[in-house]
């Protein structure tokens, strides 16, 4: 295993100089710092988390709070945050959302992590008062309904809903149905679901379109009942904001003899992987998990290094037309 002495020998400096470069506790000339950093990269040296903590009063660990459920999108976010943390020489501690505020206090009080990144934020999230009181850097992936004084980053779901309607209007559609998230998502108050629905509803009304939305569970019976209700409106397009139900929606349309896109255009809010894995490549508004994870880590690193100004950043939606949408039949 490579040690700090190996790095010092390769760089031609004292071990204490390598320690100062890592901790930032003393001023080191740019030339010496560059030589030491090159030796660290060349040898693949990784300082032990405990040693880093003693040297710098930091753990170089970020805590990620994520829901404990089988959800491909959640796993995309976890992978994105882990990758971005590694790029910043940070380790990742994964906490489950189900543990609630108690877990947040436990981690911070025991100095296990320097900062927190929180997924699956609700409109009136009960964890927010605890996060504010912790006095540590925090970034939310997702935005509460009211300003909180905490930094957050998210997709602009209201604009995403509007973009879906605009795309279908351009293709001549005048009647749209929406397959929404499961009822539990609305019951938990997940703000992204409400913002997307608001964007769809307001844009449909502005264009004089017929529009109906239904929450939808993830099993076959729930999808069948949802489509039964929506198809009474005789829509020529569906917007699916439920990645888990998406494969069943497409299978059920096929069973009913509705061809995509000849009889029914489909726009999905999902990952690009889900959009291109089926028989018909789907027109999508992509969930930019990689970009949101990277930005969340960059924002929390800025807080760790001194920035105290809270910020909210909403990424503009990116709609990618594919084979699942066409002109109104």
Automatic annotation (TrEMBL):
Keywords: DNA-binding, Transcription, Transcription regulation. Residues 312-322 have a biased composition (Low complexity). It holds the Pfam family Peripla_BP_3. InterPro entries: HTH_LacI (IPR000843), LacI/GalR-like_sensor (IPR046335), Lambda_DNA-bd_dom_sf (IPR010982), Peripla_BP_I (IPR028082). One of its GO terms (molecular function) is DNA binding. SMART domains: HTH_LACI. CDD domains: HTH_LacI, PBP1_LacI_sugar_binding-like. Residues 310-329 are annotated as: Disordered. Residues 2-56 form the HTH lacI-type domain. PANTHER family: LACI-RELATED TRANSCRIPTIONAL REPRESSOR (PTHR30146), LACTOSE OPERON REPRESSOR (PTHR30146:SF153). This is LacI family DNA-binding transcriptional regulator. It comes from Kutzneria chonburiensis. The lineage of its organism: Bacteria, Bacillati, Actinomycetota, Actinomycetes, Pseudonocardiales.
């Amino acid at each position: 295993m490579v040690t700090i002495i190996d790095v010092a020998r390769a760089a031609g400096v004292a071990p204490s100089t390598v320690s100062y470069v890592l901790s930032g506790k003393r001023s080191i000339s740019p030339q010496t710092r560059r030589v030491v950093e090159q030796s660290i990269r060349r040898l693949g040296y990784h300082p032990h988390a405990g040693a880093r903590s003693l040297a710098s009063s930091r753990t170089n660990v970020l805590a990620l709070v994520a829901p404990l459920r089988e959800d491909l999108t959640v796993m995309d976010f976890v992978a994105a945050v882990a990758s971005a943390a590694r790029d910043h020489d940070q380790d990742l501690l994964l906490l489950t959302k189900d543990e609630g505020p108690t877990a947040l206090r436990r981690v911070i009080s025991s100095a296990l992590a320097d900062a927190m990144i929180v997924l699956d934020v609700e409109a009136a999230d009960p964890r927010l008062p605890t996060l504010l009181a912790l006095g540590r850097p925090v970034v939310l992936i997702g935005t509460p309904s009211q300003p909180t004084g905490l930094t957050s980053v998210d997709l602009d779901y209201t604009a995403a809903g509007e973009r879906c309607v605009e795309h279908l209007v351009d293709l001549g559609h005048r009647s749209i149905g929406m397959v929404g998230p499961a009822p539990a998502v609305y019951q938990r108050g997940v703000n992204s679901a409400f913002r997307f629905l608001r964007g769809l509803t307001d844009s449909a009304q502005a264009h004089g379109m017929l529009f109906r939305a239904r929450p939808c569970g993830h099993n076959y019976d729930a999808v069948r009942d949802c489509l039964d209700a929506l198809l009474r409106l005789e829509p020529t397009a569906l917007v699916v904001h439920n990645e888990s139900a998406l494969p069943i929606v497409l299978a059920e349309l096929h069973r009913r003899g509705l061809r995509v896109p000849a009889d029914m255009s489909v726009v999905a809010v999902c990952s690009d992987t889900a959009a291109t894995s089926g028989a018909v490549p789907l027109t999508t508004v992509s969930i930019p998990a990689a970009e949101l994870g990277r930005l969340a880590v960059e924002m929390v690193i800025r807080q760790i290094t001194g920035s105290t100004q809270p910020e909210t950043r909403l990424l503009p939606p990116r709609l990618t037309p594919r084979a699942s949408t066409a002109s109104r039949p």
